[in-house]
């Protein structure tokens, strides 16, 4: 029997485990793939307090080592269900595991919606990025493409246009769908070029790095040279297995505020899987802290 089981080993989940252990609670972290979550896709992280520059993988390794040093345990399995038994919970995995605890923190994060192109996954961190705040500085004075046409894509492009010599917007719909005000701000800039009704059909590489994209419009294909591609076509939360325990909003995110509580006593949520305005490594860590302290209080009151 564990005090707290954390579902997900990203910055939110590992921070939750850290605070649980430091508050005298036993913690088990169950992660389905690799510890670190989306942050491992960033070749450099320069917006994490206390570190001038660190790779996403190195940051994840440091967090993982820290929670192990504090006594947290871990399993590499895929959680498929959580049973609420009142004062105890049972966390079940696809591999057949069943783990008992007093409280659960769900920190499953999100995954970026991809373009579905050959070689795309291999270029993440080597020319393909998802966050202008995180990676925009690597493309100062260079040319980048932005895939997408909603608010997120427009906001990313505005940030990039302050740093890059040229920003090429690639929207597969006939028009951009983001707010009109954002469009006015972005497309008033001389270094921004826009395409609508185009489909990105391929990636052009030079060695192991991205060198451009192939686009198709009205049956005609064209090569567009660029140093980086920012993909902003949406995020996919993976919360569906837990919807009976925690309400989801219309986009599939946990409908919980900064208190990180849910409708089920003893079930808490943290990180990018939660409905929130800002999704950064720092806000994920903050959620992990809040959720862990809330879970500790819950256990103390049992």
Brief descriptors of the model:
302 residues, alpha/beta, 7-stranded mixed beta sheet, 5-stranded parallel beta sheet, 17 strands, elongated
Give a structural overview.
By secondary structure, the protein is an alpha/beta fold. Helices cover 23% and strands 29% of the residues. It has 6 helices and 17 strands. Strands 1, 2, 3, 4, 5, 6 and 17 form a 7-stranded mixed sheet that branches. α1 packs parallel to α2, α1 (11-22) packs parallel to α6 (281-300) and α4 runs parallel beside α5. The radius of gyration is 21 Å and the shape is elongated. The mean pLDDT is 94.
Morphology: elongated
The DSSP helix count reads 6
Order of helices and strands: EHEHEEEEEEHEHEHEEEEEEEH
Residue runs with pLDDT of under 50 for 5 or more positions:
none
Structure classification: alpha/beta
Query: Count of DSSP E strands?
Result: 17
Radius of gyration: 21 Å
The largest β sheet comes out as:
7 strands, mixed
Strand content: 25-35%
Alpha-carbon distance between the two ends: 15 Å
> What's the mean pLDDT score?
94
Question: Helix share of residues?
Answer: 10-25%
């Amino acid at each position: 029997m564990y005090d707290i089981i954390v579902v997900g080993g990203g910055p939110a989940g590992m921070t939750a485990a850290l605070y649980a252990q430091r508050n005298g609670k036993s913690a088990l972290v169950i992660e389905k793939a690799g510890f670190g979550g989306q942050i491992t896709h960033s070749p450099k992280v320069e917006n994490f307090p206390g570190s001038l520059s660190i790779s996403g993988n190195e940051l994840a390794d440091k967090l993982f080592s820290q929670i192990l040093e504090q006594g947290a345990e871990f399993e590499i399995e895929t959680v498929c269900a959580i049973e609420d038994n009142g004062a105890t919970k049972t966390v079940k995995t696809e591999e057949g595991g069943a783990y008992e605890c007093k409280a659960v923190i769900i920190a499953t994060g999100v995954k970026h919606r991809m373009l579905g192109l050959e070689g795309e996954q291999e270029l993440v961190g080597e020319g393909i990025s998802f966050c202008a705040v995180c990676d925009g500085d690597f493309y100062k004075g260079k040319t980048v493409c932005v895939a997408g046409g909603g608010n997120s894509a427009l906001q990313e492009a505005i940030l990039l246009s302050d740093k890059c010599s040229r920003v090429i917007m690639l929207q597969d719909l006939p028009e951009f769908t983001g707010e009109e005000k954002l469009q006015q701000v972005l497309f008033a800039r001389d270094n921004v070029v826009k395409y609508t009704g185009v489909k990105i059909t391929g990636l052009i590489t030079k060695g192991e790095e991205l060198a451009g994209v192939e686009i198709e419009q009205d049956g005609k294909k064209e090569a567009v040279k660029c140093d980086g591609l920012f993909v902003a076509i949406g995020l996919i939360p993976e919360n569906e297995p837990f919807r009976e325990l925690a309400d989801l909003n219309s986009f599939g995110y946990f409908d919980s505020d900064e208190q990180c509580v849910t409708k089920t006593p003893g079930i808490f949520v943290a990180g990018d899987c939660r409905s929130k305005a800002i999704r950064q490594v720092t806000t994920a860590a903050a959620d992990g802290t809040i959720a862990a302290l809330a879970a500790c209080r819950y256990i103390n009151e049992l």
